[in-house]
Amino acid sequence: MKKALIISALSSLSLASIAQCNQHVIYTSGKADFTDSIGNILRSKEGKITVELSSKQFILMHDGQEDDALRGDVSDFFCEWEGAYKNGTTTFKSGLIEKSGEKDDANVSIEGKDGNLLILVKFKNEGHDFKNYPGWL
Length: 137
Known about the structure:
Blueprint: E1 3-8, H1 17-20, E2 25-36, E3 41-53, E4 57-62, E5 70-83, E6 87-97, E7 103-113, E8 116-123, E9 129-133, E10 135-136
Parallel strand pairs: 1-9
Antiparallel strand pairs: 1-2, 2-3, 2-10, 3-4, 4-5, 5-6, 6-7, 7-8, 8-9
């Protein structure tokens, strides 16, 4: 059964859309939900969820625990936005590495529609997805 992780928060962002693709961005939210492939919540995790992104690196962290963060290089980076963090998409691939050294390849997309953002991380080996509805710092 495929799982997903959903993190809820709303955002209102105001950077120039062209610059958005070339900037280091930090998204945050306060809750994560693991769901199956049809959206049923399997478990929830509360706390500060941080997603950092540049065109070269991707970091996923819970409660500021940098030593327990998932980190990976970014490849196949595509970014196109009509309005800064309002309407558009960013996609890329990343080989995320855990503190233990275990690696899991993932396809990542960040989509904006009418100012609402969704970050979706599809892990290949773990059999679950991570969904994030972030704010930003």
